[in-house]
Amino acid sequence: MHRIVFRLMVFSLLAVQPSILNAQDNIRDLVVKIHAVHHTPDVLRPWTKNSPQQVKGSGVVIEGKRILTNAHVVRYASQIYVQPNQSAERIPAHVEAMTPSMDLAVLKLDDESFFDKRGSLPFAEELPRVKDSINVYGYPTGGSELSVTQGIVSRIEYTDYYFQTSGLRIQVDAALNFGNSGGPAVSDGKLVGLVFSLIQNAQSIGYLIPVEEIQLFLTDIADSKYDGKPQLYDYLQTVENEALRQRLGLPAGVTGVMVTEPYRQDPNYPLKEWDVITKIGNTPIDSEGKVAVRYDLRLSAPYLVQKLAKDGYIDVTVFRDGKLNQIKLPVQSHRDLVMPYLLNATPRYFILGPLVFSQATQDYVERASAQRPIPASQQNSPLVTRRYDKPRFDGEELVVVTSPMFPHRITKGYDDPERFVLTEVNGQRVKSLQHLVQLLRDDTQPQIVLKFAKASRRTHETMVFNRAELLESTAKIIEENGIRYPYSSDLRSIWEKSLTVAPKPASGS
User: Fold this and answer.
1) Residue 339's CB: how many other CB atoms inside 10 A?
2) What pairs with residue 314 in β-bridges?
3) Is 103 a known active-site residue?
4) Which end of the chain has fewer CB atoms within 10 angstroms, the N or the C?
5) How many Å is the Cα radius of gyration of the chain?
6) Of the candidates 270, 291, 296, the residue with the CA atom closest to the CA atom of residue 280
7) In degrees, to the nearest 5, what angle opens at C-alpha 224 toward C-alphas 222 and 229?
């Protein structure tokens, strides 16, 4: 009798094993290696780019004859190639859509015959559960062939991603390395998430972008344009403290999150300081600022915004002045910043004689600070004090001198204004980089007077140039330094419109 049972078990294993292997082989054929050549902009020298950099990552075939990968694998890529599993072929590809903030990108292939004998990886219908097993596919460093590692789901949370954007994130303990980026994490033959990050100095900690975030991205780009996820940008805090609850007049059992700073201060904005948001939609917010989205999962309350927002609004319940009120709260897809992130754009710039002006961006401040930290003596600079401010009026930009002054005789006796924010030209306030170009173009005074924002107890010195000398020096400076144009493409038509004396591109450009 025991022999019969043993033979049945062996037969059963032999019968099941081929189907498992076939499923694994099918997934392997849907995972590709991505080769990209990055040409990132040099924000300190905005007229040029950094040296090309070879980057490798992973990707997976999804519906619509597309490859899903991470934005950081293909961001600023001048060339992209997709290499199928077990093949030496490299197929040219291009980015169809991308969101650097959620680190997702979709690629299309120049030759779509690659998809003829391949299906696509189906998506899981819901978030996995903690301790669920997953297999991660990709092409990490340490070898050239496809790698498969196994692990479990350790944690699921709603947290910060990039560029002040938040989203769901899955933590796993599978072994991940550079090159795994963009590779799929699979459970029961379905995609549960895309690898996008790891912690280098910690063991067995990696992160996935879950399918829910991927589907939001794919739905958004259905019109060939990425608009971004609706989010709350009001500053919030919990109301656990008893003294705070007394101050608010909160009855026992009423929980939620308090508004410490509304995103907008105008009278029409429905949220006010000291308001307590008790519900988003019909879901109550607990004392820790979280909501129950499943019997085994609590997430930060703002998570519900991306699920429930409709036509730019979300229904919330607010406790104010002893009463509960239902309001429609406007939400938006990005935080307005006077110094924005470049995301996938290139820096805008304008060269005037020995000076290089550019729009101040978060990318510039990060890069400049990494190269040389802003000294304590310049902590009053708008680059510091207004780092995360909203624009004070529509179209406001900070204009900064991004690079050291080019050597020229007309700079004699002047300190270098590198990293200083320009505030005035001939007594007129500079509102933006475009406005600066217009001011310089239209001003007919024989001299140009430049003033800069105060960075310390003393402001930077005033700089005075003869207009004709300043304009005439530009052509020579850009030619000597191999610069093709003295302005970014968006400023060319503005500068050349009705210009009396215009700097010309270097010869041969």
Assistant:
1) 21
2) 329
3) yes
4) N
5) 28
6) 291
7) 65
In whole angstroms, how far apart are CA 110 and each of 73, 91, 103? 18, 7, 23
Cβ(36)–Cβ(58) below 8 Å: no
Strand partners, 210: 193
Both tokens of residue 225? 């344009």
Instruction: Measure Cα distances from 236 to 256, 271, 272, 290 in Å.
Output: 10, 11, 11, 12
Q: Which of 181, 403, 432, 473 is catalytic?
A: 181
The single residue listed with the structure tokens 């990318």 is 363
Parallel, antiparallel or unpaired: strands 313-320 and 323-330: antiparallel
Residue 39 falls in the annotated catalytic set: no
- Please write down the HEC assignment for all residues of 75-142: CCEEEEEEECCCCCCCEEEEEEEEECCCCEEEEEECCHHHHCCCCCCCECCCCCCCCCEEEEEECCCC
Q: How far is CA 176 from CA 14, 335, 363, 393, in A?
A: 32, 32, 28, 45
Q: How far apart are the first and last CA of the chain?
A: 89
Of the residues 35, 38, 72, 435, only one is catalytic, namely 72
Q: 103, 220, 234, 363: which is the annotated catalytic residue?
A: 103
Any catalytic annotation for residue 187?
no
Angle at 387 between CA 351 and CA 457, to 5 degrees: 80
Asked whether this chain's domains 28-227 and 349-496 adopt the same fold, the reply is no
Provide the CA 276 distance to its chain's centre, in angstroms.
Answer: 30
pLDDT tens track, the chain, 509 positions: 444 443 433 333 334 444 444 555 689 999 999 999 999 999 999 999 999 999 999 999 999 999 999 999 999 999 999 999 988 899 999 999 999 999 999 999 999 999 998 899 999 999 999 999 999 999 988 778 899 999 999 999 999 999 889 999 999 988 787 888 999 999 999 999 999 876 555 556 889 999 999 999 999 999 988 999 999 999 999 999 999 999 999 999 899 999 999 999 889 999 999 999 999 999 999 989 999 998 889 999 999 999 999 999 999 999 999 999 999 999 999 999 999 999 989 999 999 999 999 999 999 999 999 988 877 667 889 999 999 999 999 999 999 999 999 999 999 999 999 999 999 999 999 999 999 999 999 988 999 999 999 876 666 789 999 999 999 999 999 999 999 999 999 999 999 875 544 444 444 43
Cα separation, 189 vs 405, in Å, equals: 59
CATH assignment, 349-496:
3.20.190.20
Give the class (CATH, top level) of 235-330. Answer: mainly beta
Sequence ranges of the domains in the chain:
28-227, 235-330, 349-496
Residue position matching structure tokens 């919330």: 316
Question: What's the Cα-to-Cα distance from 430 to each of 69, 177, 351, 439, rounded to whole Å?
Answer: 41, 47, 16, 8
